[in-house]
From TrEMBL:
<dbReference type="InterPro" id="IPR000120">
    <property type="entry name" value="Amidase"/>
</dbReference>
<protein>
    <submittedName>
        <fullName>Glutamyl-tRNA amidotransferase subunit A</fullName>
    </submittedName>
</protein>
<dbReference type="Pfam" id="PF01425">
    <property type="entry name" value="Amidase"/>
</dbReference>
<feature type="domain" description="Amidase">
    <location>
        <begin position="29"/>
        <end position="423"/>
    </location>
</feature>
<dbReference type="InterPro" id="IPR036928">
    <property type="entry name" value="AS_sf"/>
</dbReference>
<dbReference type="InterPro" id="IPR023631">
    <property type="entry name" value="Amidase_dom"/>
</dbReference>
<feature type="region of interest" description="Disordered">
    <location>
        <begin position="131"/>
        <end position="154"/>
    </location>
</feature>
Length: 436
């Protein structure tokens, strides 16, 4: 009988216990490695590493020697970090979920990884990504039900956090690759404003849209780590009022499956009973055009970014990635230019609608439903795509379960550069939505 595939491992309390010494660092490493040894063959969230335990124990011992005084320990002292396999990280090969030679992607470590290491985090290892963060899935399974996808493209990062292998993981979002897997795996996912976290050391899918995101089990943990990575972070005081919420009614919302939509309206009702003002705002009347513009942008930029590699190694790419690149090659410069310009127009439209409604945040389902059965797809991106295309900050909160017991998520979206306020309000909303 295997252990429970998910366990509580909130970042904020785990980091505090490790810093204070209340949780012994070496015991924590050994316990985690024991858990990985037992469960990873079933979940497959991590890239294989033969001497993971020995490496982590050596790094943890070195960290202890550097910071013997708990008062001097950095904020993420001893916290285990999962790194999606499209980031360069010193000591680990990068293959971006592909079969291409790892040396093609060698280079300096991503600065976001370096900053988290400098803050005391220990790299647990690379987490599974879909091929080049696109549509071809890896082997990772959803720890809530192994027959279902964990979502993608940040599949391994979401599953590793949900499984308690690490309390923090890095991911990326081009369309829905942080928010959707967070929802499917029942954890918190945060995609900041486009460009707020430096993207050096990243194997790009679409540079105009790619945004580095984070996974934790708790909003408090997310609020701990976001200031370490997001440029020009400005601390905000605890909210003195609840945010006014806007629901984007219309064709966008109608994409949601009936069960998930019913759950969403239950969450809305719970928020209203908790004192929140919720306004229905017609939006996304041109959702099909928005999806087309996003596809033009991302596939064209993928084709451009892979031009050299694809010319030499086309036979090593998997079919759906080949299809994406070949489709991107057919996008004209005029179409690409129009798609890039559309991002700002959509952002201005969404922020204008929010202002007209005197609202603070958009709220909507984080995915069209719970994680689909099977591992051949990572699920639909349509509930995340327009917000990603516009570059707005978004966060997924665990919010109920489907009839099959799989998690559902609530997506919160804020105006550009309102990341600080988004996290502060998300903390309030998480308390309101907490099951009785």
């Amino acid at each position: 009988m295997i252990s429970a595939l998910t366990i509580p491992l909130p970042l904020a309390s785990t980091a505090a216990e490790l810093r204070s010494g209340q949780r012994d660092l070496l015991s924590y490493i050994n316990d985690t490695c024991d858990r990985i040894d037992e469960l990873e063959p079933h979940i497959q969230a991590l890239l294989p590493e033969s001497e993971r335990r020995a490496r982590l124990l050596a790094e943890a011992t070195s960290l202890q020697q550097r910071f013997p005084d708990p008062e001097q320990r950095p904020p993420l002292y001893g916290v285990l970090l999962g790194v999606k396999d499209i980031f360069r990280a010193d000591g680990f090969p990068t293959q971006a979920g592909s079969q291409l030679p790892a040396e093609l992607f060698a280079g300096p470590e991503a600065s976001c990884v370096s900053k988290l290491r400098d803050s005391g985090a220990l790299v647990l290892g690379k987490t599974v990504s879909t091929e080049f963060a696109s549509d071809e899935p890896g082997p990772t399974r959803n720890p809530h039900h192994l027959a279902h996808t964990p979502g993608g493209s940040s599949s391994g990062s979401a599953a590793a956090v949900a499984s308690g292998f690490c309390s923090l993981a890095l991911g990326t979002q081009t369309m829905g690759s942080v928010i959707r897997p967070a929802a499917f795996c029942g954890v918190v996912g945060f995609k900041p404003t486009y460009g707020r976290i430096a993207t050096d050391g990243l194997i790009f899918y679409s540079p105009s849209v790619d945004t580095i995101g984070l996974f934790t089990q708790d909003v408090a943990g997310m609020a701990t780590v976001a200031p370490l990575l997001c440029a020009d972070w400005q601390p905000v005081s605890a909210p003195t009022r609840s945010p006014v919420l806007a629901v984007p009614e219309g064709p966008y919302l109608s994409q949601t499956e009936p069960e998930a939509l019913a759950n969403f309206w239950r969450q809305v009702s719970q928020l209203e009973k908790g004192g929140y003002t919720v306004r229905r705002v017609p939006a996304f009347g041109t959702i099909e055009s928005i999806k087309e513009q996003s596809r033009h942008l991302t596939s064209a930029e993928m084709a451009l970014g892979h031009a050299h590699w694809f010319a030499t190694y086309a036979s090593l790419y998997r079919p759906r990635t080949v299809e994406k690149i070949r489709g991107g090659q057919q996008i004209s410069l005029e179409q690409l230019t129009r798609a890039r310009a559309g991002r700002e127009a959509l952002r201005n439209e969404l922020e204008g609608l929010l202002q007209q409604a005197n609202a603070d945040l958009w709220i909507c389902p984080a995915a069209i439903g719970p994680a689909p059965e099977g591992l051949t797809s990572t699920g639909a991106t349509v509930m995340n795509l327009p917000w990603s295309y516009a570059g707005l900050p978004a966060l997924s909160l665990p919010a109920g379960r489907a009839a099959n017991s799989l998690p559902l998520g609530l997506q919160l979206v804020a105006p550009t550069m309102a990341d600080e306020q988004l996290l502060a309000w998300a903390s309030l909303m998480a308390e309101t939505l907490k099951p009785a």
